[in-house]
Amino acid sequence: MADRAVAGFTLRPVAPAEQPALLALNNRHDGPVNALTAPAFASLCADAFLAVGAWDARGTLLGLLVALGPEGPVHGPNHGWMRQNHPEAVYIDRIVVEPAAQGMGIGRALYAALAGVALEAGLGRLGCEVNLDPPNPESLAFHARLGFTAGGQATDPRNGKLVRYLLAEAAPLAGPGPAHFLRSPAKRPCPAAPR
Ligand SMILES: CC(C)(COP(=O)(O)OP(=O)(O)OC[C@H]1O[C@@H](n2cnc3c(N)ncnc32)[C@H](O)[C@@H]1OP(=O)(O)O)[C@@H](O)C(=O)NCCC(=O)NCCS
């Protein structure tokens, strides 16, 4: 499986056997991101445009990002808002970095990987939402630093959270070099048959 090494950590697509570790990391951050059941997380990963993790040299999981593309099933009302209002956007369903690894550039690297994959697929915009109430000022600061701007807000009917929708152009975020190898092999289009 291809991967991309960045200072101190490596990004690679998430294998099904790694999903429990990612789900555990996700569910330790219930609040900033919504907790999921194992079947719901497996379904999300199966539908994902990109599901990528960051690991250190010892194989410890440091971070995760799951994004949904402009096609496929809608996962929840926030994804629904993005699909309705910005159908061209790749939607970041969740990003989590272990507290001990925050501030190392992992979040930026995960977004750079997603932006690169999106651009290679002809998709130039990224979207997500961040909680306003209960507030998530760290995530708002992170997204502002990366160039995201507000596109709207709504209350999530599932839990009453007030969220702000954010959008950014992918091109300024993309890292150098190709990124498509970060997609799961199952997500890649088949190579053209030789003529
Ligand atoms: C938000 C989160 C993903 C950021 O990940 P990270 O790996 O710590 O972010 P990075 O180290 O890549 O930071 C990228 C940039 O954002 C800035 N930034 C990150 N967190 C910040 C904060 N709390 N305040 C101000 N700036 C911040 C960094 O300074 C950095 O700027 P630079 O690249 O110009 O130096 C991480 O804090 C996290 O997982 N939080 C808990 C879960 C969560 O809230 N997820 C998002 C839900 S919407």
Structure description:
- This protein is 27% helix and 28% strand.
- The chain has one domain (4-183): Gcn5-related N-acetyltransferase (GNAT) (Aminopeptidase).
- Helix 4 (106-120) links the parallel strand 5 and strand 6.
- The protein is α+β, with helices and mostly antiparallel strands and 195 residues long.
- The protein has an 8-stranded mixed β-sheet with strand order 1-2-3-4-5-6-8-7, sandwiched between helices.
- It has helices at 19-27, 38-47, 76-85, 106-120, 137-145, and strands at residues 4-6, 9-13, 50-55, 61-68, 90-97, 125-133, 149-155, 162-169.
- The protein contains 5 helices and 8 strands, in the order E-E-H-H-E-E-H-E-H-E-H-E-E.
- The chain is globular and about 40 Å long.
- The chain binds coenzyme A.
- Coenzyme A binds next to strand 5, helix 4 and helix 5.
- Coenzyme A binds at residues 29, 32-33, 95-97, 102-108, 130, 136, 138-139, 141-142, 145.
Q: Features of this protein?
A:
binds coenzyme A, Aminopeptidase, 195 residues, globular, alpha+beta, single chain
- Assign the CATH architecture: 3-Layer(aba) Sandwich
Along the chain, the helix and strand elements come as: EEHHEEHEHEHEE
Count every helix, treating DSSP H or I runs of 4 or more residues as helices: 5
Uncertain residue ranges: none
Total E-strand runs: 8
End-to-end CA span: 28 Å
* Count of spatially separate domains: 1
Strand order of the largest sheet: 1-2-3-4-5-6-8-7
CATH fold title: Aminopeptidase
The outline comes out as globular
Rg calculated over all Cα atoms: 16 Å
CATH superfamily: Gcn5-related N-acetyltransferase (GNAT)
What is the CATH domain class? Alpha Beta
Compute the average pLDDT.
Answer: 93
Bound molecules: coenzyme A
Largest sheet: 8 strands, mixed
Query: Could you say which structural class the secondary elements and strand pairing correspond to?
Result: alpha+beta
Strand content: 25-35%
Estimated helix fraction:
25-40%
